Each structure stands twice: as structure tokens, then as C-alpha cells.
Amino acid sequence: MSYYDYVVLGAGRQGVALAYDLALNCDGKRVTLVDVDPAAATRAIERLKRLLPGTGCRFAVAACDLSHADVVAPHLSGVDVVLSAVPYRLNAALTKAAIAARASFCDLGGNTQVVRQQLALHEQAVGAGVSIVPDCGLAPGLGNILAAHGIAAMDEPEHVRVRCGGLPERPVGPLGYKLVFSFEGLINEYSGCGEFLREGAPVRIPALTEQEEITFPPPVGRCEAAVTSGGTSTCPESFRGRVRSYDYKTVRYPGHFAVIRALFELGCFEESLRFADGRTAEPRALLRRLFEERLALPDVRDLVVLRCTARGRHQGRPCARQYELFERHDEQTGFTAMERTTAFPTALVAYMQARRLVPPGARPLELVLPLDQYLAELPQHAIRVDAT
């Protein structure tokens, strides 16, 4: 059996969950957490050692400013796979650093323009003999993999719908919501446009529009879904010419999107505003503080729902495949549903890269993974998808 050396960039929520799964389920020989705050990384390692007593995996800490790729580079030498759990804006430079160190790279992603910058490094990655796989989390990430699996199962795939949400177990607070990942990541989703396919052509649909009702089994029940950005990642480009439509919407409890749209229209998400009397304000900084303090809700557990539906024809007959995921907070480990469903699928991608199941180069997630094997191995990472 082979064992692997991993580096996780960022010791926040997702970084710790990544390190846990790499050590437990991905034949980790050594997992190094790199963060600008060495105290945070050390606390994370102490938690991991408590969760994994007697593990054969060695944990290490490295401190550096992850916004400067040249400073990060020395920590990547001799590593099998680098996993990024830092803000998406840093990933293009970090990808270049990984290629230079001849280490494979994957990340949690979330911004399609950054992903395109990473995919443009394909020839460099091939030359270095490493694989680059961006956008590997939940959505984008697992949702794209399920869509690709559904498309591959049909002779004539036509329509793909992906719906995903991280929710509190019950509607709570002014938004019916608790903050389950970074404020910046959330606002990135709520801004810009979703990139879809409609009638076979690429389209850009403004975020927070085309709201629809959607129902999940208890305890979730009736919800709403609306367009958000980034969830499709590169799938519309990858599957253009194969399917007629492909779209993604984020799921929330009823009433959430109406409040969010009102906040946007009032300018609450603006970096800075100048009023008629000449005075200025920074509403986004204030709103971030309010979200992080008022919507943390540590006593409220979270859950994640994901539904991917692919429709078309197979062997001349109408065909539909539906994939459902429902996950909760894990009381035993303390990992939230969002941490688990984002980090563990990404760790499995890294494990496949370490085993050289992903060819060298920079390629979209949905086109490069061995899909059947990925879904077969996913339950070993405590993530279950029901397919019908």
C-alpha cells in the first residue's frame, strides 16, 4: 500500500475537515496545515489528534501568508497533492506555485473566472506531470460530478437540474438561515450571474432571479430555490453540444431571498457608498460583522440537501436519473454538514490524484474523474448519495 504527503492551505472550517478525511480515509502519511495564524493551525492539529488517536498519519503546521504564493512555495516541495481551502481569489497563483513544485492541486473553488485561469495552465501541468482539478467542493463540486454521471448514463442526455442548499435544521433568525461558510463566499454566490445552457446555447442569468418552489422530505419540507453564481462551474462549457439545458439554483427556506434582494437594493452589500451630503459609509464591512455574529447560531445544527436530476433518452426510450444527498451535523466529530459535504468529496478527489487516477494537466472536474469509481468510493468518506 502507498501512503501520501498532503498539504492543506488554510486551517479554517473546511481545512480542518479536509485534513481529517485525508488522514482517516486517504492513506495520508503526513498532512501539513498551512495558515497565516500558526496558533489556529496548532489548535486544529490538536483537535485532529483527539479525533484520530493512534493514527499513523503525522500532522504538521507551517505558518505563512497564503496571499503570497512565493512564500507558500517552499512548503509544497515533495508533496503529492496540495488542497486549497483559502478564498478563491488566491487559487490561480497557488496553482502556479504547486505546478512549479511538481505537486498536484485541487481546491474548493467557487468562482468560475478563477477556474478558467487555472485551466489555462494545462500545458504547464502536463509538463510537470501533475494534475490540477479546481472547484471540487459541494456545489460546485459534487453536484457537477453527479450531473456528469447522469449524462454519461444516457445515449441522448437533454436536461440537467442541480439544486443545493446548506440550511439550519429549522428556519431561524431574520433570514431563516445560519452562516455555514464564509461571508465572502456567500456574497460571491449572491452576486453576478449563473452561467447556464438554455436550448443548447450558453446564457447568463442574474443571481437571485427565477425563484421557484421545491420540496424535500421531512424534516426539510417546502423551500425556495433561486439562481446563484458559480454553482455550474465549467459544466455548461463541458456539456455544450451534449445537453440542451443545464442550470443550478441554491436552496433556502421560504422568505430568505426576498430579504436578501432587499438588502442588495438598499446597497447593504456595497464596499462603499457616498451619500448626497458627501459623507461615505462602508455597509458591506458592517453587514459582514452582523452576519458573522448574529447568524453564527452555534447551538443550531445545520444540514445539507443536494438534488441533481438528469433527463433524456436511452436506448430509444425516455430516461431520468435523480441523485439525492441529505447530510446532518456529525455529533461525534463535531463537523458540520457543510464542512463534511464540502471537504470530504474534495479529499476524495485529492486521493484519486495521489493515486494517479487523474491524468496530468489542468482539466474540469466533470471531465477528468473516473465517475463510477468516485461514486463507489464516496460512502467510505461518510457521504451517501441515493440514486434512482
Largest sheet: 7 strands, parallel
CATH topology-level fold name of the largest domain: Dihydrodipicolinate Reductase, domain 2
Approximately what portion of the residues adopt beta-strand conformation?
25-35%
Specify the overall morphology.
globular
In CATH terms, the superfamily of the largest domain is Dihydrodipicolinate Reductase, domain 2
- What CATH first level of the largest domain would be assigned? Alpha Beta
Number of strands: 18
Secondary-structure-based class equals: alpha/beta
Spatial strand arrangement across the major sheet? 3-2-1-4-5-6-17
Helix content: 25-40%
Question: What is the gyration radius calculated from CA atoms?
Answer: 20 Å
Q: What's the number of domains?
A: 2
CATH architecture assignment of the largest domain: 2-Layer Sandwich
Average pLDDT reading: 95
Q: Could you list the spans in which at least 5 consecutive residues all have pLDDT below 50?
A: none
Number of helices: 14
N- to C-terminal distance:
34 Å
Topology, element by element:
Elements: E1 4-9, H1 13-25, E2 28-35, H2 38-51, E3 58-63, H3 69-72, E4 81-84, H4 91-100, E5 104-107, H5 112-119, H6 122-128, E6 131-133, H7 142-152, E7 156-168, H8 183-190, E8 193-198, E9 201-206, E10 212-216, E11 221-227, H9 235-238, E12 245-252, H10 256-265, E13 273-274, E14 280-281, H11 283-294, E15 302-314, E16 317-328, H12 337-354, E17 361-362, H13 365-368, H14 371-377, E18 385-387
Parallel strand pairs: 1-2, 1-4, 2-3, 4-5, 5-6, 6-17, 7-12
Antiparallel strand pairs: 7-15, 8-9, 10-11, 11-12, 13-14, 15-16, 16-18
